[in-house]
Write a structure and sequence with these properties.
- It is a single chain.
- By secondary structure, this protein is an alpha/beta fold.
- The protein has 2 domains: 106 residues, Urease, subunit C, domain 1; 275 residues, Metal-dependent hydrolases (TIM Barrel), CATH 3.20.20.
- The strands form 3 sheets. Strands 1, 2, 3, 4, 5, 16, 17 and 18 form an 8-stranded mixed sheet that branches.
- Strand 13, helix 8 and strand 14 form a beta-alpha-beta unit.
- Helix 3 packs parallel to helix 4 and helix 4 runs parallel beside helix 5.
- The protein is globular.
- The mean pLDDT is 96.
- Bound molecules: N-(iminomethyl)-L-glutamic acid and fe (iii) ion.
């Protein structure tokens, strides 16, 4: 196995508090990394870098862990740009818009779905995302959910069965029968392709009892449960997530004090999705309130054609800092180590020995530029599994 040293790192974020300055981001100035196989085998100050087979000098740039986008819906067809346009003119967002994407998704070929999803993963990678979770949820038949997950599985190990996204049009007169379908034949067809099971626990989608039944069926089939909750208004979803001890509960826009207490007490990760509040012009989740209460916060894009059609983790970090009162360091932690916690992964979201060598070289001297320079393409290069996958390192520059 050949090793490669990444040298000339002006500022390194390891996101391992055991390294560097002792902060949660484990920061080191004047640093180097050594990668071997698909892993980081050494991280430290440049003066102490051990010998490696080859070396790449990043010319004083900052290096951060690849972003972990723990919530995305990338298997779909169609376009809802006009819906966004109407919202910006004052129309409210409603969960029912999902059904228009369902119609387009069912009509698309496997090749069309796979091509679109792969293009979005590539778009994410070029912006520094090296781990992505992908949900089904726009098929809502046994066949269309299973093929959505088969597509997702070719792109990531973090696949989520979201048959309980909304009740599809043909079942609106009997939602209970649809829940039975999700928990029975649909789950059976989807479980082989999925690691996770999710439900949209919200007015207009599924109530707490329905979500509980769906998650329990998924758990029996060997899937790990997670939940969409408290996006459009206060509701029971966060309490349900805490009662069940889920890995994460996502959205968390409308929280009571009891919800915040329950999240802090149980350690369930609150995944905030500011792209949604941006594109639905909704109130921002209060990340500061969560962090001050001791809740673990992750940031993700929720990339989907309806409520948040961005694939950019840096945009979500910038919104987190500007509008949700995270510090730049907290936003970066939430987009890396926080996302890893939300996916129950300890091999990503950090750059220390034993982690996957998934890293982003920024064309900037410090990670603060990620949020200080919003909208600017600062990703110079991305490495995944110790190999460069996009961008240029401009050696010697
Ligand atoms: O996470 N909340 C539920 N699902 C998506 C919205 C999907 C859509 O509008 O198509 C979300 O925001
Ligand atoms: Fe979502």
């Amino acid at each position: 196995m050949t090793s490669v040293a990444i040298t000339g790192i002006g500022h390194l974020v390891t996101a391992d508090p055991a390294l560097g300055d002792g902060s949660p981001l484990g920061e080191l100035a004047g640093a180097a990394l050594v990668l071997e196989g698909e892993q980081v085998v050494w991280a430290g100050v440049a003066a102490k870098v051990p010998p490696a087979d080859t070396a790449v000098d990043v010319g004083g740039r900052a290096v951060v862990p690849g972003f972990v986008d723990s919530h995305a819906h990338l298997v779909f067809a169609g376009d809802r740009g006009r819906e966004f346009e109407a919202r910006m003119a004052g129309r409210p967002y409603a969960a029912g818009g999902i059904r228009s994407t369902v119609k387009a998704t069912r009509a698309a070929s496997d090749e069309q779905l796979a091509g679109r999803a792969a293009a979005l993963v590539d778009e994410m990678r070029r912006q520094g995302t090296t781990t992505v979770e992908i949900k089904s949820g726009y098929g809502l038949t046994v066949h269309d959910e299973a093929r959505s997950l088969a597509v997702a599985r070719t792109l990531t190990p973090e696949t989520t069965f979201l048959g309980a996204h909304v009740v599809p049009a043909e079942h609106l007169d009997d939602p209970a029968a649809y829940v039975d379908l999700v928990c029975g034949p649909m789950l059976q067809a989807c479980a082989p392709h999925a690691r996770w099971i999710d439900a949209f626990c919200e007015r207009g989608a599924f109530d707490a009892d329905q979500a509980r039944v769906v998650l329990a069926a998924g758990a029996t089939a060997g899937l790990l449960p997670r939940l969409h909750a408290n996006q459009l208004g206060p509701g029971p979803g966060v309490q349900l997530a805490c009662e069940l001890g889920l890995a994460a509960v996502d959205h968390c826009t409308y929280l009571s004090d009891a919800d915040v207490d329950a999240l802090a007490r149980t350690g369930v990760v609150a995944t905030l999705l500011p792209g949604v509040e941006f594109s639905t012009r909704s109130p921002w989740p209060d990340a500061r309130r969560l962090l001050d209460a001791g809740v673990t916060v992750a940031l993700a894009t929720d990339c989907n054609p309806g409520s948040s059609y961005t694939s950019s983790m840096p945009l979500c970090m910038a919104l987190g800092v500007r509008d949700m009162r995270l510090t730049p360091a907290e936003a970066l932690w939430s987009a890396t180590a926080g996302g890893a916690r939300a996916l129950r992964r300890d091999d990503v979201g950090r750059l220390s020995p034993g982690a996957r060598a998934d890293l982003v070289v920024l064309d900037a001297p410090h990670y603060v530029h990620l949020t200080y320079r919003p909208g600017v393409p600062l990703v110079q290069a991305v490495w995944q599994g110790a190999r460069p996958v996009t961008g240029s390192l401009a050696p010697g520059s």
